[in-house]
Amino acid sequence: MSATRPLPAATASAEPKQPRNYRVLLFALAAFVVLIDHISKRLIITRLPTGSAITVIPGVFRITHVLNTGAAFSMFAETTSPETVRNGLILFSIFAVIVVFAMLWNVARTLTPTAVALALILGGAIGNLYDRVRYHFVIDFIEIHIVHYHWPDFNIADSCICIGACLLLIEIFRPQTST
Questions:
Q1: Which of 37, 131, 153, 158 is catalytic?
Q2: Cα-based angle 121, 124, 129 (whole degrees, multiple of 5)
Q3: Disulfide: which of 52, 87, 137, 171 matches 67 by Cβ 3.0-4.6 Å?
Q4: How confident is the model over 17-68, as pLDDT tens digits?
Q5: Nearest 5 degrees, angle CA 155-CA 55-CA 147?
Q6: DSSP state of 73
Q7: Nearest of 119, 120, 129, 122 to residue 89 by alpha carbon
Q8: What is the model's pTM?
């Protein structure tokens, strides 16, 4: 009489283990950025008249309500053809969103600073693109003064784009380790 023995556990799981895919998490981060950006801008629109400001830290930080019809740092805001600038910025933003989406799709299988950076940039780009399409301008509301320097007003989307860009720069200049 022979008894059947169970297979050892090692043979049962001999299939190669698939690496975890972080796409859902990273695209959720991008969506979270869009959501927080949208909520913060809605709060500004509904609670602070355009052109108004609330001082948070005197001489350093104010919450403002500024309408930015230009690009980053209000570049092209004083143009003689604002509709052309707006349409150009929308087209550029759509192109940027598509490129960053594709890049994130390719690197999002692993959780790296580059993947997080791209998720932040994607969320910020979509947040500002929404404003340009919906309102014909971007709502900025964070005003910073450092000593005698006045940083141009910005928003959550801009902050996420800048943080993402800084993460990418750190990745570029970080010494690479051999594996």
A1: 158
A2: 120
A3: 137
A4: 666 789 999 999 999 999 999 999 999 999 999 999 999 999 999 999 999 9
A5: 80
A6: G
A7: 129
A8: 0.83
